[in-house]
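Quick note —
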Amino acid sequence: MKQDFQKIGKSYATAAAEIGCSKPMLVAVVNHGQWPKKGANELREKLKQYFETNGADIPAGLRNEPEAAPAHPNESEDKEMLLRKATLTQAAKQHFGMVKDPFNDEIQSADDVYMTPDVRYVREAMFQTACHGGFVAVVGESGAGKSTLREDLQDRINREGRQIIMIEPYVLAMEDNDQKGKTLKAVHIAEAILAAVAPNVSPKRSPEARFAQIHRALQESAKAGNRHVLVIEEAHGLPIPTLKHLKRFFELKSGFERLLGIVLIGQTELAQKLSENNPAVREVVQRCEVVTLLPLTDGKLAGYLKHKFERAGGDLAKVMDESAIDAVAERLTVKSRTAKGTELNSLLYPLAVNNLVSAAMNMAAELGFDKVDGDAVRGV
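Predicted structure written out below.
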């Protein structure tokens, strides 16, 4: 069929438009004999008509019943597939002349982090909290880059030689109630502070003595020129009582000088817990600034992809065309129904973009495309 198709002399894109199917689907059928699971018979009739219209003999491969491709294991979960992990295959890297995968384990230094205005603001808010005290909550969807900014904060402190002690309580198995997992309580935070500030000191038994001990340890550490920042990841899993107790840690002072800055990092549920409409945490809400990591909308997607390929030694223009970038934005914009009507929600966060583009590059390489185009992205 491939030889007969090439005799007509039309490109796959032109033929796909005439037939009424996507370019990746046409390439898969003509070059590899891979028929779609649904609509295979209808596509066969359209292909027959295409050959007849263009004055070509119908290939033998169209006279037999098409063998449908096996169902994709995630075919019924298209939306979930967008967030599923995907890495570039060796064939895809060779096809596009890439030595390094631009989307997998790619953050090795601060220069690898793409700085949008939103990211730059959040990054600086976290750093100022570490240097001068404060109370900030960083909120973002899964894959928005929150953990990357925490790593960047630690790297920046080390790189600039700042006397800042980062205190990070372990949040393994942390949930906001004891039925689902283990709650992180004020006493656990106190133990983490003491272990970081005065590692050779044994904690007192009684809670009152222990908290007084922590206050003294922070004061002594501050006299030595140290600053302290408490960083809690997965903070959306904090129970309400612990959130309320954080206000008391925040108020630890030596004179007018705050002894502890607090950075909470969590998903959008954290913003709901810290809502001004939640009277249970009103004392925290009045002291905590909530900053949000926004999606790569308003033209930021192309800049993000260009940065990623450049850091990996590649060239975006040689791998993806403009239609592919538009298709990524389209594919990661979903509609939802609300009481006010239909709303558009963007999922253009780094992790989702990385997985979708990687999968599209793998498909394009498998089908022999010179570049990833919009059809390849939509065909993932």
